[in-house]
Specification:
609 residues, globular, 5 helices, mainly beta
Amino acid sequence: MSAITRKLIDLTPDPNQPGLSNNYFAAGSYTFDRHRADTKVNYNLSEKLTMFGRFSILHYDMVDPQMFGKLGGPEISSAGGNPGAGTGNTYSFTGAVTYIFKPSLILDAYYGWTRMDTSVEQPRLDEKLGLDFLGIPGTNGTRRFEGGWPQFAVSGFTELGIPNAFMPYSRRDPQYQYVANFNWTKHTHEIRFGMDLYATGMNHLQPEATGALYGASGGFGFGGGPTQIRGGPSGNNFNSYATFLLGLPTDRGKITMVPDEYNTRSFQYSFYIRDRWNASRKLTLSYGLRWEYFPFPHRADRGLELYDPDTNKMLICGVGVVPRDCGVHESKKKFAPRLGFAYRASDTFVIRAGYGITNDPFSLQRPFRTNYPVLIIQNIDSDSFQNTGDIATGIPKPVIPELGNGVIDIPGTYAVVTTDKNFTRGYVQSWNFTLQKQLKWGFVGQAGYVATRSTNQMGYLDINAGQIIGAGQAGRPLRQKFGRTAATTVVKPFGTGHYDSLQATLDRRFARGFTISTAYTWSKTIGFIDNNDSEPSVRAIPYLSRNRTVRGYDRPHNLQVSNIWELPFGKGKKWATNGPASWIAGGWQLNNILSFYSATPFSVTASGT
């Protein structure tokens, strides 16, 4: 048995203790506290000008202990988020003004600012448990956030140490929004036009990155391969535990943050115009056009970073010969039309229809906030039946490169994020056609076809994932080309999601102490299959189109019924209108909410071996 794994086992609580079972050991309790304060001011400066202001502070504290106490492990309460102690504040300010130029022309404008501060730290962060206690080279580091336990992931068992590759973290995220709208009424036209400018920023101390195996303190994974027999039975958790006892990790890695804090900046611009035209007493038309532009994000002092899969080089945007946007083209032709009409065929019958396009505002600043060489992401993998060496050899020391002319080399074991130079942004089409009819006895019925098409849905694709079944590491395309073995994640669109539905309602307005509302939806949702992290389940590039199915949240039938019935007793009612009977029986209601809906789909799976 490895001397390092012996130290970990000696710290593990005895599962035979009363009240403890399996791999889970309660260690303390979960607590959460939150406080909020708001201040609002309204001021009418004149008959034409009105101003409004609001400032809000939300503070919270959270403690969510780890399952294995001093040995770490996952958090006890999934409702508490991350393991350890957390605290944060959200500050929010809104300022608004309304100005009446004349009765037919009105301006309303807004300024909004929000800053979200949050931080979470795992226990024992001030101790270098991987380096000083276990004696594993390359774990932990000189800075406080690199302390604590490394992660030990034994396949089939609960993780030991720190279970997340993104802990600890401290974030300061500001948002700014500027909105101005003009409303102009001219005869039968109501014209509205304006702009919306949106700026967001991220200032993070957090060792987190797409494709990273482990965090700032390092980590080791133990699969069953090294203790399996080639051609023998499939591996199981006994094989992976044996691999752990021998101290033979099948993968290892670490994130090294070069700066103590990294940042991103992103902007979104939009302008629109819309006209609502009362064409006749019976017909109302609404039509408009929106233009949007989403430039490539950047850092506070330069551009982001982009991996070039053709040359196996890293481009540092805004440094040397590399342009600030790395040559990533975001279209300036993002026009989104909207059209709708309402036709009153009679006093009791209305026909409505509409169509619109919405551009996907997905911001690239989050997937690109951490990349080489801002973060050095070491992922060291092995083939199926091999290990990456003895755990006592630790994790190699990372090399922090010079930026030079902005085009730098990258080791093959460091994970990266990239995107296509000609970035394709998705969009959503929505349309509907509904009929509404006033019926007898106060009922109003409505039925319609409602649908959406989410074209070019955004997701993450590891273009260095194995493409050949059974080939292991040798099946990675970039390994064959450049000797590259780490994850190489491309942020790009993958497919189209379909939603079609019949939506119907039957409502009775409140009258004579009774109201009822009934809603029924018959629908189907088909879309791109992902692994709950916006990554395709089937990553082999020739078979990406196979990632298509009825979505896991699809519910074909959904019937909701609710009603309020005031009982006919008490003053002003039919019975027991006065006296003790009125006092006792009066003022009561019967309220019901009934829900009937289909179950979600299920998947049939089989072992990969």
